[in-house]
TrEMBL record:
It comes from the Bacteria. The gene is pheS. Mg(2+) binds at E253. It holds the Pfam family Phe_tRNA-synt_N. GO terms for biological process: phenylalanyl-tRNA aminoacylation. Its cofactor is Mg(2+). Gene3D superfamilies: Bira Bifunctional Protein, Domain 2 (3.30.930.10). Tetramer of two alpha and two beta subunits. The lineage of its organism: Bacteria, Pseudomonadati, Bacteroidota, Chitinophagia, Chitinophagales. Binds 2 magnesium ions per tetramer. It comes from Chitinophaga niabensis. This is Phenylalanine--tRNA ligase alpha subunit.
Length: 342
């Protein structure tokens, strides 16, 4: 230990006499004394060879030595900040580096446009939690616990509470709005939803929806059809065909699915439209009386319609994208294609 203390005293004298004139000399000092293989770290490694009754005394000597070296380095820190003379050679006449502006994701572009269209029709936005309970996601919507239609919306459950799940549709936000009892209701519910799906070009385990709900007195299916006709014309233009097909949803009666002619293949058939020439863009129908009653609304006085659509499907049609997986892969080669659209 005595020999090491003598070495430390010699190094202290060297440090005290050190004067740095350039950033290079200061860096050499740092490497020699404070670097990962420097003198300070090497001497600290000798602690294991010191007797236990001497460790405290030796540790104080080491700490004082380290602090001396660090203080000397900080004393000449202004040389390092001078940046090896770079500041003095800065050409202020050079143009600055441009700031690259980001762009909105295509999903966000279509979502925002759909919201603006429905806002012109008097719809307001209602939102709800992504982690829902069974009542708001299923039971209140006429999907009892053992209802077979639940198989179409298999989802992910929270392990520590089986009643909690990742919502399968934004209809749960509609239920929460109806439970407030403030009529009439005219809302759209955009948001992310989850389902236990096999990931493919047309499906994913999470996606985005916009659902709409209108409840008032004397609401008819004709009101629903004209609302949706207006929406698709504003979203896609008028160069396509539209058809309604009878369908089944537990929360609406009667129910329908709305198709438009495929904008990607022009109706000739492709993997997006399953080679039929038609693409389903939404499901809709008149709100089931039982759903109204479940939410405390008098079904003998009020009627309403509801609809729901996947934003990914709308985006694929609008921008002629053939693989839904591109939206979540964060591939800049894909995303940069939308840089002209802010």
């Amino acid at each position: 230990m005595e020999q090491i203390v003598q070495q430390i005293e010699a190094y202290k004298q060297e440090i005290a006499a050190f004067k740095a004139k350039t950033a290079e000399e200061l860096e050499q000092f740092r490497i020699k004394f404070l670097g990962t293989k420097g003198i300070v770290k090497g001497i600290f490694g000798e602690m294991k060879n010191v007797a236990n009754d001497k460790k405290k005394e030796f540790g104080q000597v080491l700490n004082a030595f380290k602090q001396l070296a660090e203080a000397k380095y900080e004393e000449f820190q202004q040389l390092k900040e001078a940046g090896n003379g770079a500041a003095g050679n800065l050409d202020l006449t050079l143009p600055g580096e441009p700031h690259r502006l980001g762009t909105r994701h295509p999903i966000s572009l279509v979502r925002n446009k759909a919201i603006r269209i429905f806002e012109r029709l008097g719809f307001t936005i209602a939102e709800g939690p992504e982690i829902e309970d069974d009542w708001h996601n299923f039971t209140a919507l006429n999907l009892a616990e053992n209802h077979p239609a639940r198989d179409m919306q298999d989802t992910f459950y929270v392990q520590n509470n089986p009643d909690w799940l990742l919502r399968t549709h934004t209809s749960s936000a509609q239920v929460r709005t109806m439970e407030l009892g403030k009529l009439p209701i005219r809302i759209i519910c955009p948001g992310r939803v989850y389902r236990n799906e096999t990931i493919s070009a047309r499906a994913h385990c999470f996606f985005h929806q916009i659902e709409g709900l209108y409840i008032a007195e004397n609401v008819s299916f004709a009101d629903l059809k004209q609302t949706l006709y207006y929406f698709v014309q504003e979203m896609f233009g008028e160069n396509f065909k539209v058809r309604f097909r009878p369908s089944y949803f537990p929360f609406t009666e009667p129910s329908a699915e709305m198709d438009i002619s495929c904008l990607i293949c022009g109706g000739e058939g492709c993997n997006v439209c399953k080679h039929t020439g038609w693409v389903e863009i939404l499901g809709c129908g008149m709100v089931h009386p039982q759903v109204l009653e479940n939410c405390g609304i008098d079904s003998t006085k009020y009627t309403g319609f509801a609809f729901g659509m996947g934003i990914e499907r709308l985006t694929m049609l609008k921008y002629q994208i053939k693989d839904l997986r591109l939206f979540s892969e964060n591939d800049l080669r894909f995303l940069k294609q939308f840089q002209g659209v802010l």
